[in-house]
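Format notes (please read before filing issues)

Several people have asked whether sequences and structure tokens are stored in separate files. They are not. Every record keeps both together, in the order shown below: the sequence lines, then the token lines. Line labels are part of the format and must not be stripped during preprocessing.
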Amino acid sequence: MNAVVPMRAHAVRPYLSADVRKGAQRAPVFVAMLFLATSASACPVCFGGPNSLSTGMDSAIFFLIGIVILVQIGFVALFWSFRRRAKQLQRHREQFHLINGGVR
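Then the structure lines:
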């Protein structure tokens, strides 16, 4: 059992050193991205500044969401009316009784 543990540690070492080297190569790029993030931010038109043109787009999005909600309300009303009509038809059918014995 003890002979297996050193073999595993030996098999992991090459991968670990390769990952450490890749991390060391990527670290300067990551640090540069942190410092350049403010200059890479979106312009006021895209970002939504006070003189932004995106207010029209926001209104269009809200309009489309409203249309979707209205269509869903329409479906609920349709199925509610189907249910109401089915109950009314059932009550109408229950009014009529078959006479036991009837005409022979």
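For reference, the curators noted about this record: Residues 86 and 92 are 10 Å apart (CA to CA). Residues 54-94 form the longest helix (41 residues).
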